[in-house]
């Protein structure tokens, strides 16, 4: 293995640890373990620092235009190839919760690809996105610009659940 192979593996591990420790922090807080929650939160942030630095080591942060192009490609692959096969397998195995999560992610990734494409068009013309607000569905990851629908078109949660991204 090369140093770049090691950096790629380390990035994947650090990114996963960040998400895992963030969830562990929330669970500890919900169970009343405030300081354990803070410890997990600190560790999660430390793992994010490692992952961020590794992205730069691997030279994976380009111009905004390059980053958008790569993001469109990645999201498109996820909704066209990766998640459909995951949904199919979950269905075969009778894993209904996994099937739901994969389906929500697949549909949200398609939305992400479209939003990134809009952003790419704007950036290619030297402009920023012409939106006033960006909202996120905390259940499925759907992204909406400017207005929130009465309920999420992907998972059905009510508008009040959406979070505005600052």
Automatic annotation (TrEMBL):
Keyword terms, alphabetized: Electron transport, Transport
InterPro entries (alphabetical): Ferritin-like, Ferritin-like_diiron, Ferritin-like_SF, Rbr2/Nigerythrin, Rr_diiron-bd_dom, Rubredoxin-like_dom, RUBY_RBDX
Molecular function as annotated in GO: iron ion binding; oxidoreductase activity
Database matches in SUPFAM superfamilies: Ferritin-like, Rubredoxin-like
Domain of life assignment: Archaea
Xref: Pfam families: Rubrerythrin, RUBY_RBDX
UniProt domain Ferritin-like diiron: residue ranges: 1-127
Domain Rubredoxin-like: start-end pairs: 132-165
Name this polypeptide is given: Rubrerythrin family protein
Organism, as annotated: Methanomicrobium antiquum
Phylogenetic classification of the source organism: Archaea, Methanobacteriati, Methanobacteriota, Stenosarchaea group, Methanomicrobia
């Amino acid at each position: 293995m090369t140093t770049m192979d090691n950096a790629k593996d380390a990035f994947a591990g650090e990114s996963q640890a960040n998400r895992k420790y963030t969830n562990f922090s929330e669970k500890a807080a919900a169970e009343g373990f405030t300081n354990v929650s803070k410890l997990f939160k600190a560790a999660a942030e430390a793992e994010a620092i490692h992952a961020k630095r590794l992205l730069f080591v691997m030279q994976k942060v380009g111009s905004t235009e390059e980053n958008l192009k790569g993001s469109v490609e990645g999201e498109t692959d996820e909704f066209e190839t990766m998640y459909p096969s995951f949904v199919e397998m979950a269905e075969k195995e009778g894993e209904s919760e996994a099937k739901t999560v994969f389906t929500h992610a697949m549909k949200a990734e398609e939305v992400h690809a479209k939003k990134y494409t809009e952003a790419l068009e704007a950036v290619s013309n030297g402009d920023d996105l012409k939106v006033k607000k960006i909202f996120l569905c905390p259940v499925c990851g759907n992204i909406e610009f400017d207005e929130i629908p009465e309920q999420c078109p992907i998972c059905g949660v009510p508008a009040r659940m959406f979070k505005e991204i600052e």
